[in-house]
Records
---
Amino acid sequence: MAKNLTRSPLAPAEFPALPVIEGVTFAAAAAGVKYAGRTDVMMAMLAPGSTVAGVFTRSATRSANVLDCQAKIGGDSDAGAAIVVNSGNSNAFTGKAGDGSVAAICNAVAMATGLPAARVFSSSTGVIGEPLPHDRIIAKIEELMGAQDETALGAAAKAIMTTDTFPKGATRSVEIGGKPVQIAGIAKGSGMIAPDMATMLVYIFTDAKVARADLQALVSRINDWTFNCITVDSDTSTSDTLLMGATGASGVMVTADNAEFEAALFDVMLDLAHQVVRDGEGATKFVTVTVTGALTDADARTHALAIANSPLVKTAIAGEDPNWGRIVMAVGKSGAAADRDKLSIRFGDILVAENGWVASTYREELGAAHMKQPEITISVDLGIGLGAATVWTCDLTHGYISINADYRS
Amino acid sequence: MAKNLTRSPLAPAEFPALPVIEGVTFAAAAAGVKYAGRTDVMMAMLAPGSTVAGVFTRSATRSANVLDCQAKIGGDSDAGAAIVVNSGNSNAFTGKAGDGSVAAICNAVAMATGLPAARVFSSSTGVIGEPLPHDRIIAKIEELMGAQDETALGAAAKAIMTTDTFPKGATRSVEIGGKPVQIAGIAKGSGMIAPDMATMLVYIFTDAKVARADLQALVSRINDWTFNCITVDSDTSTSDTLLMGATGASGVMVTADNAEFEAALFDVMLDLAHQVVRDGEGATKFVTVTVTGALTDADARTHALAIANSPLVKTAIAGEDPNWGRIVMAVGKSGAAADRDKLSIRFGDILVAENGWVASTYREELGAAHMKQPEITISVDLGIGLGAATVWTCDLTHGYISINADYRS
């Protein structure tokens, strides 16, 4: 971490007890990529027969690791797989040297494990534009292999943190055909978080047996309604990566249209996405923005993101000010269709505005009381169609400025 | 003003000496719209034969005043014209009552002045969603008419301020066919400032004789390269209005293709636009973002605005941190075309990055020294085309949070 940050007031009470996912093991190590005295590399190893799927940032300046993962992700293989992740340096905008660092790490892991290099996936997160000291990571591969442990997913969650104030994990189990299937995942992220591009770093594992194409279809579909629906600061990372591995160790076959599995995976991904928002840099409020009655779902999302990304809405929430005029402003600027005189606004269950003006039943005290809560709900009904969307965000506080005005220093 | 704000460190040394524009007079009054003890209404009166043009916010939730101005702006008339502006209340999202307030004010001014109501233009700026106490404004019309003064444009500039920390004025004179023509304007604005929609409140006057259609063509064209190229916080006002009146008192005819007049008007509008940025809420740095080498001018503007609106770029500038990686991030997320390995970045004249990585000649001390200046220049060359754009913004500081986390309270 750049500095000792106070644990977010919106953090879950505790890190969840993550189950063993048969067929995958983990280890973390302190390689000193940027800071000494903390774990900053994690390696996951998946058993032969595992499938791997992923979604990635759509940034035009994405990192060398992301480009390498994207080149590898569509391939089928019966070999196992490895995932190596470091924090402290994102290896983004590091030119040809960055490509070289990825190749050096993946080749070294391939050599040490006997895996084909095409089955070694790497991620890097941290500062942009500085050369990745990949030798320090390679020097830890033997230690990481020796320490592989099926219960170390929590340690891996800690090793990938940057400005995160708490490690993020989530798990669900689901019965499919009378047999239990486990899903567990970890994530990191708290700033440079914006949807429409994928996510931050997320690694999810299951012991279900899922064909690669089905796993990819599930992950892509659910991603669009979870990680692609969160925003902390409207800024999109050059490193966003979600990788999911299915080991098949449970023997339970799952296809892309399995509703129980999809529901459980959705829960895990939404849980992790919400934890990223809850650890938004400087966040003191967790905000749900729901837009209904839009012309289309896409329009609803455009409006919801305009609200969720508006600095004036986010600072009003930080100040516990039920300043609904700024929500009107954000709807107005979004560019999507709206009719000033048909939209209504609610804080929680409180009707604030309708018919183009403040509701006759609304009292400022009601809105102010809702704003004092740590969890805020803003609902806007546009009254012109059936489109709907929900996104999640946090407030914009002095803490965000403090963290980001000297992150590198 | 919501509270006593310290004058922006980026403010001009002093308010400019504005010339008399023959054919237009001004007055300001204290109507107590929201706060007592300050002027908060201004009225300008234009002589018969004046033409009026305007550009307005494209917000879907624009104010009742904006809708009324837009309905009136295309009309030709030999009558004079009046412009009435109040601060303290924006009369936006005030439903049918808001339309009624505009009609009440315009009709009262028409009655008192003998002008047709279609020649009375009104603007309101301030809090959204509260009923405009238009009776307080109407009660001041007689006083405003009696105090009309050709030298009172500066007093008008003060009356329209909200969170502005200094009044904004600009002037140029230009010789056309050997005869002098004067242009002078005022503006207000410091938050809820984003381009692509028009501007904040701006009123410009000239004694040139310009046909209405020509005046509109000039204002619209120049607006696109001045007010539409500034952003403080990416949030767009529901009230943005620019009105320009040409009295013709100089006897000098000007058409839309008059290069000297266009250059002078451009200077006035850019000067006012820059002053709005210099008074950006909490601003400590004035930032010029220039993008060249894009596929198209539109792409260049998209990239420039992605940089100028990025909270992470703006907080880095606030922290005087030459964190060019965040500029790479912003270019990457903008959605416009870019090639990671072809873009170069400069701070002032300092080459920071090229060929997909930090420049070999770059030293962090050089970037840090540039960042310590109150005026920062960020130049990005994408290296893939001929498109170019420049936008202006400010940094994002604790001051912005302080101002906006309790503006209404």
Note: The first strand of chain A starts at residue 24 and ends at 29.
---
Amino acid sequence: MPRAVREQQMMDAAVRIFGQRGFRAASMDEIAELAGVSKPLVYLYLNSKDELFSACIARESKALVAAVQAGVQPGLPADRQLWEGLRAFFTHTAENPDGWAVLYRQARTHGEPFAGEVNVMREEIVAFVTGLIGAAAREAHHDPALPDRDVTGLAQALVGAAEALAGWANETPGVSAKEAAATLMNFSWAGLENLMNGRPWQPQGQSSPSSR
Amino acid sequence: MPRAVREQQMMDAAVRIFGQRGFRAASMDEIAELAGVSKPLVYLYLNSKDELFSACIARESKALVAAVQAGVQPGLPADRQLWEGLRAFFTHTAENPDGWAVLYRQARTHGEPFAGEVNVMREEIVAFVTGLIGAAAREAHHDPALPDRDVTGLAQALVGAAEALAGWANETPGVSAKEAAATLMNFSWAGLENLMNGRPWQPQGQSSPSSR
């Protein structure tokens, strides 16, 4: 069997064990057994538990970013783009619960370098979402109604909401990917649409959120 | 000086050092020096670096939850409640950047028991927000238009968005607490209001997010 195929089998097993047991409790014995190889072969190919974990983070990050980017179809109206992007994200996290647990729970709770590695992926997604919101806002409104900094803030809010919902959906029996996507679509779209069209929320009372 | 006062001074110093240096790099020498006490006294009062860190998580969690709960004024319209709650949250995280870094960055990136301790606080805030959204939805709409599970999902989305924005605001020069609160208000209110009134987003195309 070619080395590349063997390595993918080892990483499939590692993502499963890391995602379900956690980084510390995961044992290289169990990973080797699940992959159907000897433990020395795992060390030969992937060096150490730390490097294996980093390799899992890299592979799962790349797969998640690719899934979201493939889901968003340029040329669709902004609300459809958001809807398709959210569906792609929640479908991916639902179909890869162990990979998502590695990224969202495990990588962030075991210090460096892992927290930094997953943060690079997060920044990539925030930058992608920032680009989409900015483009939609420019299309809706000839003037750049939304300053760049506001667009980045909205992207941060959307990504943070998506992360929290994906964790909750995977841990709550019976919440489907489509349901999670619909929750976030309903939560976020009306506000984004209003902002893109220069219609911020106006309070009835004294202090306005748009006055700075 | 009474023990309770000394302990608070030690924890003030510890939150500063943990928040700025990170859990691993923080030294007990530096914490003792900043608190103006001897290192043996820190150990005598707070036992170990791990217990000191747990004590910091507990104190900062309690302060954050109290700040958010104090900000929300029952009896106001739902949008004003949300606005006041968001302002209280972002004001607290902006005024206590080291405490927020301990909760949001440090406690979650150093495994158990710390990640679990900060998660208890997070669940408390999600439960509080779930209660507020549920009450507002019942008030807007006699029928329970929003099933309980949907309300919990919305609370998860709002809390996730708030966490991400607070981290971003504290790390981005010149983003004020009011600005962060306004970004999230504009992002979330229109969608929440629509949902409370039974008006979900309807796509122009084929697949509807409200059909399950």
Note: DSSP finds nine helices and no strands in chain A.
---
Amino acid sequence: MTDVKHMKWWGWGLEGVGFHFEDKPEFAPFVKKAVGLDVSVPPVPPLSFDQLTVPPVRLSPSFEAELVAIVGEEAASTADEVRVVHTYGKSIRDLLRIRRNEIARVPDIVVYPGDEWEVQQIVDAAVAEGAVIIPFGGGSNIAGSLEPLVGETRSIVSLDLGRLNRVLAIDEYSGLARIQAGAQGPDIEEQLNAKGWTMGHFPDSFTHSTLGGWVATRSSGMQSDKYGDIADITRGLRMVRPGEIVELRPLPSTSTGPSVREMIIGSEGRLGVITEVTVQVHRQPEVREVQAYFFPTWKAGLAAMHEIAESDASPSITRVSDARESGFSLATRKASKGVSGAAQSVLMSVLKRRGWNLEEMCLSFIGYEGTASHVSYEKKLVGAIVKKHGGIGVGKGPGALYDQKKFDTPYLRDFLLDRGAAADVSETAAPWSKLQEVYDATRAAADAAYEALGVHGWIMCHLSHSYHSGACLYFTFAFVHGDDPIAQYEVVKQSIQQAFQDAGGTLSHHHGVGVEHAPWMEQDISVGGVKLMQGLFDSADPAGLFNPGKVLGPAQATPESVAALRAAAPRADVAEVPAP
Amino acid sequence: MTDVKHMKWWGWGLEGVGFHFEDKPEFAPFVKKAVGLDVSVPPVPPLSFDQLTVPPVRLSPSFEAELVAIVGEEAASTADEVRVVHTYGKSIRDLLRIRRNEIARVPDIVVYPGDEWEVQQIVDAAVAEGAVIIPFGGGSNIAGSLEPLVGETRSIVSLDLGRLNRVLAIDEYSGLARIQAGAQGPDIEEQLNAKGWTMGHFPDSFTHSTLGGWVATRSSGMQSDKYGDIADITRGLRMVRPGEIVELRPLPSTSTGPSVREMIIGSEGRLGVITEVTVQVHRQPEVREVQAYFFPTWKAGLAAMHEIAESDASPSITRVSDARESGFSLATRKASKGVSGAAQSVLMSVLKRRGWNLEEMCLSFIGYEGTASHVSYEKKLVGAIVKKHGGIGVGKGPGALYDQKKFDTPYLRDFLLDRGAAADVSETAAPWSKLQEVYDATRAAADAAYEALGVHGWIMCHLSHSYHSGACLYFTFAFVHGDDPIAQYEVVKQSIQQAFQDAGGTLSHHHGVGVEHAPWMEQDISVGGVKLMQGLFDSADPAGLFNPGKVLGPAQATPESVAALRAAAPRADVAEVPAP
């Protein structure tokens, strides 16, 4: 078989890697307080693979032979474990379904093309056969962008791009790199770093997601303030369609009608298979620093981020956690790292003397990149704003820690699942004037959902990805689930999503739509907007062979379902902010 | 009638305003040298309006009555002069056709809706009638985005948005303003400035173009380095479609599938009528300065702009003219302004002593905005780069002059037309590594075309609109035409456009596509890209009522026509730059 790496079939990351709390003394008490869970109870691990009921392969022998002839024996598989790994992404619904042996439909064959010409042949063969094509990158999606539709009667081909993982060329004078779509984050950065370059795109899924997946789902990385969202970073691309390749040459900007580039970005496989992307790359900066700050309250932290965005400063990261997430971050430290021990005690006494309520305190990270003198200039600009809003700098220690463990959080979810708690994330973006309302409404919606379910739940938040006109709010929520965790999860998740819409936020800032967010598309981009997009999909793929049901799924929220969500989770009582 | 302002039916700008050379002593000798034209010969003014043959109105009485009932008697017109003003934009082809009484097809009625609901009713009435709708903003387009198709047998409604010219609301905390699509540049800036804000969007057409037009054609303004292209500035919008409004709420960023916002931007009326746009606005900066610099050569200027884009500096304008355009700029100065008289003589002797060839010297403008200390910091960063590339700062004088007269250039075209010379502009964008090749190939293509035509021609260029990965090159060309100026113009224009494509540039950076650039769409975004876009247009407008023939026109370049253009204007002999 090919040497393409895959995550665990039942959870995040590589086999043998997981979350451990034994070296984090404050973690167990924190979780006990937050969701009432005793993490020292013996875990119940997921079922073993042979306990799964894997649907049989539905594939005509001639089509299978044709695909094998294209990619070779080594690069095609109908093995159960391979097909199961390619069935879901890594949302909590995905993990719960796998753990409960709910896999109604899986791909019938997984193929690993070795070059673009093989992709073209696979696509053309599938179209001739009337088979469904689901492109697969790292499998990290958490919006349901990968799952086959239940009840799909046609053959399903999972087209895994994992072998297309090379940086093909760097145009050093233009700061552009041609990279194959199946390259994962570490593949890309290693190949670029070796020549002094970086792409600067670091989503939380970085270690296990691919360039093609980032483009297909409109990803954004934690340094987007400097490097841009993937839509900004993507300058050119190649996408295989039936019988032809759409080729968009790399251009800094162009005025050629509606943007085909921006039609393909976010298309989640519905228009074709992205094989190659030309991205902006930057010389690795002389200095890169993540500084930590404390703010006395969430409001103060939010106001400071707003003022930084409005100022002449241009940091690479702006991030502030609410008091709950700040407490969580401090509780997941190892005993000896970060703002720790004696130093922390001293700092806390100082803040108390200043009149801070330490329960309200918020942790912030701001990133700086450039020449040493530029970093120093930026820090001065930001420092003055932090001070104006009552904040205080606490140095590089916590920032360095954040930098090291930033990709570890997804492992925590499997740890909690083993112990009967469901945790997931929902994120949105909104104009600055609406962020407080989105925050209040979302917390109220989650709490109302927890109350309705009779569960001990938790929700926390950080602001990240600042723009001129607004920012992203990223929520993490968890609760100890009952016998039907998926139904309970859906109540919480849907309440949160509806709160986003009602308060002026979008259904997702950077996780894509999939099937999970599709019900809010009409509310988000209007009925007329959905019709334009549907027209594009239908004209490009009249037979519905390309990852059908994603982005514009069969399920749109109805007036009744929206009303029910609103009734269940009434909006927080917040001051009316004039619409822009 | 309504008080909506229009430009001259035969040329640029307002009646009574024009270009004068009497106070510019170096202008006449410059033009004599450049294109062999004696500007002191008596001008031949354009024909008078009553010499035009205006096609009759093709409109059913019932449809006319319906439209009049929607907007009122005052806001509908079938008068010849009104219809002619709404026929063309202001390209050289447009001006030549008007001057030669070539107006085969004009709109049959012009309506001026007073609000969005009237737009909706007009659209619905036209769709019911099977009439063509051409949205009209300021009428400044130079790519043929407005003209009715010759041979159009259906009724044509010109939908003039001029009465929708208000800033509706400013969300000061988010830096967002809701503005009606028919607002012209000065309308917008006056209303915003009164409250301390600016949109920062200043295309050359600023004084006569509208927000809706900017969005519909993917405009870019001269301060785009700081404020972004219109695609970046546009955060939300409303567009009227048959029976419904597409509403995109203002969001800083979103992950909702293919971008409907980016489908509408650049759509040139083919998807519907944009009525309202929510744009990013910025507080007016404390300091705004345009500094002038001289570089010893074009290559040095280009290299400096590249290094600025790669550096930590972030100026609001980066612009450098080639030696020819630098000479032109100096020749259009009034005798007493700018780098003038004695001071200039002293400077020139200094530069000569430094070994500069003054014939090769290039003029550059760099803009700075922000607090006083930030402007000073930025100037220091840029100053060091300029010096490294052998450039020299010459202060604020020429920059202030540039700022004052930046919107006057289009008047020069009418002045030259009165004297038998045709002048126009073509602009492109390309990665940094390809700019020199685009420049060389374009100059060679124009010169080859002039030679083939046996005319004395001229072409000059500036770089503007810098991005991380490339920049815009903006060419101005002129020649004394013969008896068939349109045919001659087409030879030159098409040679230039083909050179852009062949050297790695795009068909336009910010002028849109219209019918003029449509033949290069397949070369620019590939055949597959054109098909995706065509599918969008066809699904959104199956009857072809919305500004038909624009962006994807009837005429695509054929392999034969491309080969002919390449043969006529062989590529410059430049070093091969490795593709990214």
Note: The two ends of chain A are 56 Å apart (CA to CA).
---
Amino acid sequence: MPATPSAPRSSRTRSWWGWGYTDAHPDDAECAALGALLPGTLARPLPVPRIADLSIGRPAMTPPPSLTHLVTTDPSARAAHAMGKAYRDVIRALRARPGRIPDLVAHPTGDREVADLLDWAGEHDVAVIPFGGGSSVVGGVEYRGDAHRAVLSLDLTAMDRVLDIDTVSRSARIQAGALGPVLEEQLRPHGLTLRHFPQSFEFSTLGGWLATRAGGHYATVHTHIDDFVQSLRVITPAAAGTSWRLPASGAGPSPDRLFLGSEGALGVITEAWMRLQERPRHKASASIAFADFHRALDAVRAIAQSDLAPANCRLLDAGEALLSGASHDGSSVLVLGFESATGPVDDRLATAIDLARAHGGHADDRLATAIDLARTHGGHADEHPVDRDASAGSAVSAWRSAFLRMPYLRDGLARMGAVVETFETAATWDKIPALIEAVRTEVGAAALKITGHPATVNCRLTHVYPDGAAPYFTVAVAGRPGAEVEVWDDIKAVAGEVLHRHRATITHHHAVGRDHRAGYDLQRPEPFALALRAAKDALDPHRILNPGVLLD
Amino acid sequence: MPATPSAPRSSRTRSWWGWGYTDAHPDDAECAALGALLPGTLARPLPVPRIADLSIGRPAMTPPPSLTHLVTTDPSARAAHAMGKAYRDVIRALRARPGRIPDLVAHPTGDREVADLLDWAGEHDVAVIPFGGGSSVVGGVEYRGDAHRAVLSLDLTAMDRVLDIDTVSRSARIQAGALGPVLEEQLRPHGLTLRHFPQSFEFSTLGGWLATRAGGHYATVHTHIDDFVQSLRVITPAAAGTSWRLPASGAGPSPDRLFLGSEGALGVITEAWMRLQERPRHKASASIAFADFHRALDAVRAIAQSDLAPANCRLLDAGEALLSGASHDGSSVLVLGFESATGPVDDRLATAIDLARAHGGHADDRLATAIDLARTHGGHADEHPVDRDASAGSAVSAWRSAFLRMPYLRDGLARMGAVVETFETAATWDKIPALIEAVRTEVGAAALKITGHPATVNCRLTHVYPDGAAPYFTVAVAGRPGAEVEVWDDIKAVAGEVLHRHRATITHHHAVGRDHRAGYDLQRPEPFALALRAAKDALDPHRILNPGVLLD
């Protein structure tokens, strides 16, 4: 079936230096109010940075005539492609010390152009940094060092179309440069959805999700995007190819799984056939308070080890619940959500609440909400990245609003000289309680020691499994003016050491990029390290693709 | 937690040439009765082959003194490790034309010994064929050609222990050489189960399942063993390593997924931490008859695209249903089963039956059986590989009995000179009806043309997905006496051509081995082919590991 004729684009202005849309940024007064919550921050916000204040310089190379129409050397475009959106990127912009500005930004519109750009780059020793929405928080889209003659940022967002839809097999062929809302809008007329809603949904692309094994909507079972991949098209300097559209296969090691998580180091993913779903018609959600975080962990484990498969199963510790407005009495809060296109989910929610109660949880019955969307909305589900439900004012909706607002608030605090960042991991259940305690204690102590200010270290579980969970930590502390990057790097080094000591992964879904290389190198088993290096040599013989991620 | 002290072993005798246990083989009279069903077969069965009738010869090399205690040159052991259990293996044994007999059979008891054997083999140009239960049906455990000085079969079944159990995270560290019943017996005292029940369950090992991405118990969601892997230990000639125990990770491409499906060509999997489950306490099953196979396909698709997640969802076409005794009136039969350790599954079964009825299915209500094992058996589930339920005499149980008996009957027919074999594939739903029709028609026509006898080509769906299904075909036809291997190879070549034309995978769960190389080479995308070759060169520089599978 042919797909929709054109991809919609937002008319709002993206920030070149901070998260998301500029019209959603906190203003100076809100920044000051945020800063007042954190002792030791600045009296007034750092000014919003301007590209004109950067020393961008002339590009080291210009493209050949045959590629000129694809490549820009415009300073604004180059600045907007210099970094991702980690705290350390935001503060580097605020301090006018950005990472290496790429010399060139390319916007290919098809596979042939991607291949041509790779050919030219390989011949001229030009580093190529694949770039989707640019929302990396691990240094995944910047260049470090000076081993190449020039740096080209390969922006794929002009390739943003849903090219084919197979409604029988519920799948679609989608170009890698489609941002979340862009692809969902094209699927909507067919009654289907990819239903992959990372926090960055509006500002990240399918290709970025695939290349980083992004974590999405589902808190259980299909947590990463990996499982929704039917086929990948990959262009490497050495060869291009497309895996067959298959629901499953036992023919050798999965060819797609080598490129999922390859972060642009092995090739450029230009399109994928993705598995879709019907929009859910039945939903039910509830929030459950726990006085004791450790009993809450037991409750979540019981739910994760059942076959209830909640779509949402996020446990917020007391600090996280307070910050998001989900609780004000020192309770931990479990946000539970079920959804289905097949039938009502009230029974599953009730069973999950029973499990939570057996571990000391208190459900606020007024807030447990079942929604039969087929009945109340004529089958139209509200498909906002984090679906709103009818329980306005509940802990569930408070958390959901805060979830989308958090990165903006982080940038507001950054303007107040605060160090505010998140990191995430995963470990088996036997290690989870001690791991969370160690991160809180040791990272908090390190932040105090490094800055002289008391730090906040909060934790939530974003995804849960029968055999473990993915804790997600938020750290906030006043920085040392002008040395915020160094302060954060020192704090993060302590965090990395704690994760390694507990054999908890250096990343559950933020990817490795450049910032997690030390932890990744320790974690990666040697046979796979040898295989990955060999694959890199074979596919990228000139070593131009995203140098420094995953491998040296 | 320490594991159980010793691994149980069966006292029954394994057949060196045919499927399973010798005491389960059809006798001459049963063989003759089977042969009478297939026109053109022999008047009396070929004799049971004897090792003494093979010309085995002296081993080309002997092991060094340091390894002598691990290695045998006993002719019986060598003959029993010469081939797997495909039809072409059985008929080669019956015709006293086995594949290359390995020179040596090693039985290492630990990782150090595996590494020592690989070191010695690498230094002396000895091919090493990892061998678990030896149930390969794709030529995965034999040697072809003469490029090496000698051939060593690396039998891992002495490494059959459950070494650690983590009941909190519901996982266990299990040695790769444990046969299905051996590992389940060790898990049973802890109330846990791996619940991976391929047809070969009794005669295949964990390591074999991992190396071939075996298909197991579940017809939906977790169909292959891949998803139950928490960590792998792999020994390669170049390096050994163990991935961290993680419930999930986004740190680079999955290191385990490169070795899952690597079929012994990249390294030897010696142990794995596996995700376990509670034994189910609630079960319900039903069989549903369809007059129209195409409407049955639609029904199965509707169930696969719901979130009901049946554990069993096997659709038998009319021929398959007749052979297994599930139906005698030309109906296709859908065998549905649900199970849970969390709560009753009757509602899920009822919803699935409703979906089937909406597509013309007729459920025999007397046979829809819900079993609350917690109530009726004090919590003890019968954990036979294909769980028996209370509906004795039903289509469900008829099919289940036939499922386990089928490979034995195949060998009985082989003794009658018949060509009887299976092959399986997977494709997206849009291709399924035409694919099944083309296989039936073209393979049936080819078999008739090649043999001069009418052929039976039956189909069942073994695993189903929201975006597609895995059809499994059985072919039976009288062979040309003495040329059965060639007949089958010619028929299989036609099957492979049909699969390729429909872009259906060359294998859903039987693996590639040597028999599927041509189809696999056509299917594998070029970037992955380059990466896999490079990984092979890096990990197995002397090219001693299972030469000929996956790669030349």
Note: The domain at 282-382 of chain A is CATH 3.30.70.3450 (Alpha-Beta Plaits).
